Amino acid sequence: MPGKCKLWKNCIKCLAQINKMTEIPKDAVRCLDKGFVRLVDSMGGDDAIVQAARVSYGKGTSKVSQDRGLIRYLMRHRHTTPFEMVEFKFHCKMPIFVARQWVRHRTANINEYSLRYSEARDEFYYPEPKQIQFQSALNKQGRSGNVPKQLTDKVLKYFKEISERSFDMYKELNEAGLARELIRAILPVNLYTEWYWKNDLHNLLHFIGLRSDSHAQYEIRIYSDAMADAVKEVAPSAWEAYQDYVVSGLRFSRIERGLLEQRLPDRVIDDILEDIAYQITATLHNNKPRETEDLFILYKKQGGIDSLDDFELKWSSGEIEIGNVRELREFKTKLKRLKK
To answer: Which of 180, 211, 267, 337 is catalytic?
Structure first.
């Protein structure tokens, strides 16, 4: 009898642990029907990127604006090493088929829930009806189109049938004492797993760039978007630069640049260069105010071609935007290379 009581207590303890693992942590972002992403820890942020870039000084600059400018420069010129100094550790729970797609990014440190050592949990992913679509005719890796309700119901019915039946078989074999490392193979890939996943910011941004893209599979996109929110909070300037130069930026191939050089009229480039001259002048004046009589001279030094009267007219309009001087000058150099 004492032995049975002890066994019963162990079973209760085991069930309590399993129930605890099936709960979604309070600080986690819910993903899909039973999954989540939780930022466990992070090391560094925008300041760590700047400090790594200015290693010879041993510390960053005193102004946030200067740190932001340096981060944008690093991102613009693809100097990636400083971004690797920032690290994120996530606790994630996802269907196995999502995890297998996720693990293709081989730059992370991962420790996954082991079905060889531990018992499987009765948790399976069932898609929302609106996510059940036909195979895309244009994208072999995608889905599209509305599915009739009758067929949608059948898909969900099959999902639940195979999940419940396979788990019953697994449970039966597990109770019979069969090796878990073998009988786990019965379970389908919509079974939930979880892991701790640690990666540096550079590779995490690459992951997000691919997996938050509109062409990525919906199920993994949800997790990528949740991790993106963590990056925005920990390293806001790095995230801003990533959006500006990687997500929303454009790079041209040699052929594409050749077409621009042939087809883009010089007058259009000259108009843009003139706008840049005004922007650089306004930015320099904003950073270090000049006397009114010195502004036209400063504008001319930036390559401006307007007369004094035209300059005073445009300047007084108050519609000139300020920017980053280094960025504007780099853009100016690129434009000049497009002129015939």
So the answer is: 211
Q: Which domain does 288 fall in, by range?
A: 254-338
> 181 and 223 in one domain?
yes
Q: d(Cα 210, Cα 225) in Å, to the nearest integer?
A: 11
> Could you give phi then psi for residue 29, rounded to 5 degrees?
-100, 120
Which of 159, 153, 157 lies closest to 188 in space, CA to CA?
A: 159
In a domain, residue 10? The reply is no
- In tens, the pLDDT along 84-98 reads 999 999 999 999 999
Quote the CA–CA distance of 197 and 206 in Å, as a whole number: 15
Q: Which helix (H) or strand (E) holds 12?
A: helix 2-22
Q: Are residues 209 and 274 in the same domain?
A: no
227 and 117 fall within a common domain: yes
Do 216 and 78 reside in the same domain of the chain?
A: yes
For 291, what's the count of Cα atoms within 13 Å in the CB-facing half-sphere?
A: 3
Domain boundary among 216, 247, 278: 247
Burial of 13 per CB tally in 10 Å (0-12, 13-18, 19+): exposed
211 catalytic per annotation: yes
Low-confidence ranges of the chain (pLDDT < 50): 1, 4, 7-8, 11-12, 14-16, 18, 60
The contacts of residue 188 (CB under 8 Å, 6+ apart) are: 124, 162, 163, 166
* Whether residue 263 sits in one domain with residue 217: no
130: DSSP letter: G
* Phi, psi torsion values for 142, nearest 5 degrees: -125, 180
Q: Residues 185-241: pLDDT tens digits?
A: 999 999 999 999 999 999 999 999 999 998 999 999 999 999 999 999 999 999 999
Q: What pTM, to 2 d.p., does this model score?
A: 0.81
Tokens 């396979």 label which residue? Answer: 166
Contact 301, 319 (CB under 8 A): no
Q: Is 254 exposed, middle or buried (0-12, 13-18, 19+ CB in 10 A)?
A: exposed
Residue ending a domain, among 247, 262, 296, is: 247
DSSP-assigned letter for residue 84: G
- pLDDT for the residue numbered 81: 94
